[in-house]
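Case study B.
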Amino acid sequence: AQSVTQPDIHITVSEGASLELRCNYSYGATPYLFWYVQSPGQGLQLLLKYFSGDTLVQGIKGFEAEFKRSQSSFNLRKPSVHWSDAAEYFCAVGARTDKLIFGTGTRLQVFP
Amino acid sequence: SQTIHQWPATLVQPVGSPLSLECTVEGTSNPNLYWYRQAAGRGLQLLFYSVGIGQISSEVPQNLSASRPQDRQFILSSKKLLLSDSGFYLCASPGEGQGYGTQYFGPGTRLLVL
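Model:
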């Protein structure tokens, strides 16, 4: 079955620290992978996406993610977190359609 | 780029009452449209999607229905709300020319059923 797992429900980091949010997927075909961010009470915004090619993809707001096929992972990273990065982050997987399967999300809290 | 509007922003309804949530899209024509529900700790669940006027596909059996009376309007409805219908409802549409899965989301409607 197709699924996305985000094992960390809640992560807390200090401002300026590095960040890694984990995402594992199960998908029968070559996946398209996405990270979305949701600020409190708002809709979702696309951070970055992987379709093919270079397995390290750059996104907006200084985020990057690395696709590792052998580990079925697509972890999101940022070298130095800002207080404004506090939000909920969703990993999603799809194929050659617009329909996505989302993970349950990771809530990021940033302390000054 | 397109803009997605949702109305209302917040809604508190008693169990058994009807529901109508509206989604409208600007800046594109004949878009695919999606309704998602976000319940606490459960991520986003795709409820319905539509590829055109009057064309609705349901992803999960439930107490809700959807309609698309106009090209850029997508309605989520219920005849009798259940407690389990509480959640955050998001309307989405693919970005034109952005590639598969690149969705634009509306601001959402928070529904509380009491």
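The radius of gyration of chain B is 13 Å. The remaining cases will be described in the next quarterly update.
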